Amino acid sequence: MSKLILVFLGPPGVGKGTQAAKLATDLALPHISTGDLFRDHLKRDTELGQKAKGYMNEGKLVPDELVVDLVMDRIAADDCNEGFILDGFPRTVAQDESLEKALSANDQKVSAALYFDAPRETIVARISGRRTCKACGAMYHAEFSPTAKDGVCDACGGETYQRVDDAAEKVSERLSEYDNKTGPLVPHYREKGVLKQFDAEGGVDDIYGQVKAFVEGLKQGA
After folding, report:
1. How do the domains of the chain map onto residue ranges?
2. What average pLDDT does the chain have?
3. Which of 22, 53, 170, 174 is catalytic?
């Protein structure tokens, strides 16, 4: 079977990270997100990390070329020999084109892009309901998984709060930015014939059952 390379795509708050993590565990494949890569390189003070830090300190976006370099550096590791899952990358068509060029140099390509979507009101409700403990970082939801006592963490008794980025108006801004920058990847992958869309409004386990069945079929057909 050829190397399994999966891209998980969808707006913020749609649950793609949860699905990617579950599949990565089941298939024993690396779950790679650019956020984790940035933090790792900055922590280790690598050359790539220093370059990224320079742009970030100036308030500039990290160039696509550098983001792709970070990803390619990661997927060259031995644990990616059987494949890997990219979560939140590529974010733009230009990034995918750079990724495609880098992968093709090693006779590799994206096996499938799994696109998760849900009504915007559902996404806003999911994100704006998030609450985080200031002390231990435990996550809750005002509607779906509230604390026993309002504003108090069940785990440690610390204060829970809503992150600024999770306020409803900020969520709407983030979704607009996603539509403008990342949204074009959907027709882009569809034209390539590798897009598979999932309705992300249902329960986590129900959605994962569909994801697992699709990927198993993908593996058998490879």
Report:
1. 4-119+172-221
2. 91
3. 174
Q: Which residue has the tokens 């500039």?
A: 60
Sheet holding 112-117, edge to edge: 31-33, 83-87, 4-9, 112-117, 195-199
59 pLDDT band (50/70/90 cuts)? Answer: confident
Residue with tokens 């409700």: 125
- List CB contacts of 97: < 8 A, sequence separation 6 or more: none
User: CATH assignment of 4-119+172-221?
Assistant: 3.40.50.300
Known catalytic residue at 120: no
- Contacting residues for 34 by C-beta, under 8 A, at least 6 apart: 67, 70, 71, 88, 89, 91
Residue 116 and residue 10 in contact, taking contact as beta carbons nearer than 8 Å: yes
Q: What are phi and psi of 61, to 5 degrees?
A: -70, 140
Q: Is the pLDDT of residue 1 over 70?
A: no
6: helix, coil or strand?
A: strand
- Of the residues 3, 74, 126, 130, only one is catalytic, namely 130
Active site residue 130: yes
Q: Considering only CA atoms, which of 73, 94, 93 is closest in space to residue 30? A: 73
Q: Which residue has the higher pLDDT, 215 or 54?
A: 215
* 159 φ/ψ sector (left φ>0, alpha ψ -120 to 50, else beta): beta
Tens digit of pLDDT for each residue in 127-148? 999 999 999 989 999 988 999 9
**Token couple for 62:** 């990290």
**Pairwise CA distance, residues 21 & 32, whole Å:** 9
